[in-house]
Design a protein that fits this description.
This protein is an alpha/beta fold. It has 2 domains: 187 residues, 3-Layer(aba) Sandwich (Rossmann fold), CATH 3.40.50.620; 89 residues, Pantoate--beta-alanine Ligase, Chain: A,domain 2. Helices cover 38% and strands 19% of the residues. The strands form 3 sheets. A 6-stranded parallel beta sheet has the order 1-4-3-2-5-6, with helices on both faces.
């Protein structure tokens, strides 16, 4: 396994593999890896074969965090992450710094690069206006920008994302389609703990009581599936029922419950089988998300 810390070295490798016809599978992460991430690595390997190259990026992207969010507190453990990548058979781990990804943003007086402040972003204007986009207005602009940059550096044939971040994956797929990136987007199933809680790096923030209560998200998904198993249900009524169900957990503070079309992400008035449900819930300062197709 090779560790690549610079933009120049990563792009040079990507171009070399392209010229040689080597398939590239890519898993972008913010580190603090868990088995959910490793399942994406396994999916990437399956898609490109043993003769291909699997690249994992580990980069906590500052432009997708608002000033009030947990950028400085986001869990980091690069040594542990590298050990997990090595054990999972990753070929390349790309570990750039902020100065590598956003050089002008970090050093506007740089003599090496254009001294103008970083001012070019990639913005998706439809799918990003609901759910997470309403709760975190600048978030997806940061996500699409950094993913576009990573695609231009790694030059993957296949990039794998997790369903837990369903809206993010949908937006990236739309970006790839609209801007003609030559990469196939794969969305792999959410990996869960034995009690159903979706695996997430932010689960580390939960204390014992919060962790026990956080499984209410998974049970809310199951309750919604049962509710629409036989008949359509008005979305407003089911939202109200799920809100009451979730906030019965003493430390749960609901951000949103949304039922929507999985292709357009637009809300539906009546919830039927095949609709999608997304949840965002706070436990203390920790904000957890989950989703599933009903």
């Amino acid at each position: 396994m090779r560790i690549v810390p610079t933009v120049a070295a990563m792009q040079k490798l990507g171009l070399r593999w392209k010229r040689a016809g080597v398939k590239i599978g890519f898993v972008p992460t913010m580190g603090y890896l868990h088995d959910g991430h490793l399942s994406l690595v396994r999916e990437a390997r399956k898609r490109i074969g043993q003769n291909g190259v699997v690249v994992v990026s580990i980069y906590v992207n500052p432009t997708q965090f608002a000033p009030t969010e947990d950028l400085s507190e986001y869990p980091r453990d690069l040594k542990r992450d590298l050990q997990m990548c090595r054990a999972a058979g990753v070929d390349i781990v790309f570990t750039p710094s902020d100065a590598e990804i956003y050089p002008e943003r970090q050093n506007p007086k740089s003599e090496i690069r254009n001294p103008q402040l970083f001012s070019t972003y990639v913005v998706e204007e439809k799918l990003s206006r609901v759910m997470e986009g309403l709760a975190r207005p600048a978030h997806f602009r940061g996500v699409t920008t950094v993913v576009a940059k990573l695609f231009n550096l790694v030059l993957p044939d296949v990039a794998v994302f997790g369903q837990k971040d369903f809206q993010q994956a949908a937006i990236i797929r739309r970006m790839v389609t609209n801007l003609n990136f030559p990469v196939q987007i794969i969305v792999a199933p959410t990996r869960r703990e034995p009690d159903g809680l979706a695996m997430s790096s932010r689960n580390k923030y939960l204390d014992t009581e919060q962790r026990a209560q956080a499984v209410i998200l998974f049970h809310a998904l199951l309750a919604a599936k049962r509710a629409v198993a036989k008949n359509a249900v008005p979305a407003a009524r089911l939202k109200r029922d799920l809100a009451e169900f979730i906030t019965a957990a003493p430390q749960a503070r609901l951000d949103y419950v949304e039922f929507f079309d999985p292709e357009t992400l637009q809300p539906v008035a009546r919830v039927t089988r095949g609709a999608h449900l997304a949840l965002a819930v706070y436990f203390g300062k920790t904000r957890l998300i989950d989703n599933d197709r009903l």
